[in-house]
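Query structure, 92 tokens:
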């Protein structure tokens, strides 16, 4: 889990660095959003599994983390849209 989280963080930092320096960043930002959203969902689903039945109760914040992770795959362009953006940028 930690490796995937760090990789998502670094992809995000790379896209932000490119934007901050006035360089093209469309492909990198789409890759960062795609990977970070998938990673967030994967990690939170695993966390819920670790907690077992308690992972679905409001007694622990894990259930909210999973709901919050799912929305990252939807807003500002779904994962499918991000894949489309990436593929178009790669074929240029």
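Result returned for the query:
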């Amino acid at each position: 889990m930690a490796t995937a989280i760090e990789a998502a963080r670094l992809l995000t930092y790379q896209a932000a660095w490119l934007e901050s320096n006035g360089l093209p960043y469309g492909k990198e930002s789409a890759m960062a959003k795609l990977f970070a959203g998938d990673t967030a969902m994967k990690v939170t689903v695993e966390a819920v599994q670790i907690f077992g039945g308690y992972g679905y109760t409001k007694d622990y914040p894990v259930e909210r983390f999973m709901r919050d992770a799912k929305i990252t795959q939807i807003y500002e362009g779904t994962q499918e849209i991000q894949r489309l953006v990436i593929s178009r940028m790669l074929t240029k």
